[in-house]
Amino acid sequence: DAWGALGIIDNRQIGHLLLRKCKQVTVGVEADPIGCARPPNQDRRITAAIANARNDLAHRHRAHGRTVVHNERDLFVKIWKLAQHVGRLSPTSGNRRTLRLRTTLMFSKDHYPCHVIPLICIDVDGTLVSRSGKVSNPVWDAVDRALDRGQHLALSTARGAFASSWEMAQRLDPSGWHVFHAGGATVHTGTGEARGHSLSEDQVAQCRELAESQKWVLELYSPGAYAVEDESTPAVDHAGLMGVPFETTAFDDFLKTEDSIVRTQFVVPEPAIDEVMAAAEPLGLSMTSATSPIMPGTAFVSATKQGITKATGISSICDELGLTIDQVMMIGDGLNDLPAIEAVGHPVAMGNAAPEVTALARYHVAHVDDDGVAEALDRSAEIDPRS
Q1: Which residues are paired to 177 by β-bridges?
Q2: 233-247: pLDDT as tens digits
Q3: Residue 89: CA atoms inside 13 Å, Cβ hemisphere, count?
Q4: Most buried residue among 186, 189, 203, 286 by CB atoms closer than 10 A?
Q5: C-alpha 314: how far from its chain's center?
Q6: Rounded CA gap, 339 and 308, in Å?
Q7: CA distances from 37 to 84, 86, 97, 351 (A)
């Protein structure tokens, strides 16, 4: 047991020493009021505060008030959250009330008691979402089972961190990092913090010139917003796919309000993918393409900073969780998933995946219309991440 006064969580040396020896930590919390007089209902209020705190942390993992953490920073953030909950009880008037926070730390030598894969990254279009535009109930049920096992789930998508994709990310992990913009940004659903890789002003200008000369629809993206000037049908349909009302925004105005452009995207007919790739090659950007069953026949060609892909985004999440990328499962179907499929230790191809993805995947599951993601999530419980 480690003890610390409320608001002064300073057991870092203890935690650091123990975490050197262990890979899994589960946290249970109690609080004892000491050295003060309390009104009759105070014990009940304290008990309710602790219950609320436990429920808050248990929401993601549904693990009876315990949650798995993987590094010292994560451990003390969670303890601090519990302290904040207890601290919401106002002191009794005229008395100095002190609460002592007791944290019970339980350690084991492995990341998870059942040796399950600790992090699973999931693509959206063609993987999590079918042509219906929604995630099926069987998939959400499988998500809940994975969360019950203590697995971290993260979105890994070329979509932006807003509208329907943001809602999916929050459902997978309401307080964790997710990959957006094909790696152009990782965003934390709990704090809203975004870590982006910005394109230069010159690169954005060159993309604009290319799109204008070829009459291609171009979209500009900051981590949490986007702009399009084109009013053609593909632009309108794509807004519907993302779950946002369609409206045009002048790029010059958008660039004045957004500090960072992390991705540009060309929305073109699917046969034009190679043409766009070839034309954009001199720009010195990482180019990836994707399709969506919601908009058949249309391709989305994304440009991010050189060297930035879904794989680099997943690697940054691994750093946060104290994992290595060979412990990760990636479930995908499109060409923009290839860098991640190649990098992780447990790559999964959907039944509707591009041939290149299927060829590189270690595991293969059903078509998106047949809930292939649910199959992958359930199979992850049977796979030893060390294999």
Answers
A1: 188
A2: 999 999 999 999 999
A3: 27
A4: 186
A5: 9
A6: 10
A7: 21, 17, 8, 65
Q: Report the distance separating Cα 211 and Cα 207, nearest Å.
A: 6
Terminal C-alpha separation, the chain? 34
Asked if 81 contacts 53 with a C-beta cutoff of 8 angstroms, the reply is yes
> Per-residue DSSP letters for 112-180?
STT---SEEEE-TBTTTB-TTSS--HHHHHHHHHHHHTT-EEEEB-SS-SSHHHHHHHHHH-TTSEEEE
209 token code pair: 């010139």
Asked if 9 and 79 touch (Cβ cutoff 8 Å), the reply is yes
Token representation of residue 164 = 């329907």
How many other CB atoms are found less than 10 A from the CB of residue 82?
A: 25
CA gap 91, 5 in Å, rounded: 15
- Which 3 state secondary structure label does DSSP give 322? coil
Q: Cα–Cα distance between 21 and 234 in angstroms, integer?
A: 55
What is the C-alpha to C-alpha distance for residues 196 and 263, in angstroms, rounded to an integer? 10
| Structure tokens belonging to residue 185 | 């940004």
**Residue 258: which residues within 8 A CB-CB, separation 6 or more?**
222, 225
Record the pTM.
0.74
Q: Do residues 162 and 244 touch, judged by C-beta distance below 8 A?
A: yes
Which residue type, as a one-letter code, is found at position 240?
A: G
C-beta atoms surrounding 318 within 10 Å: 22
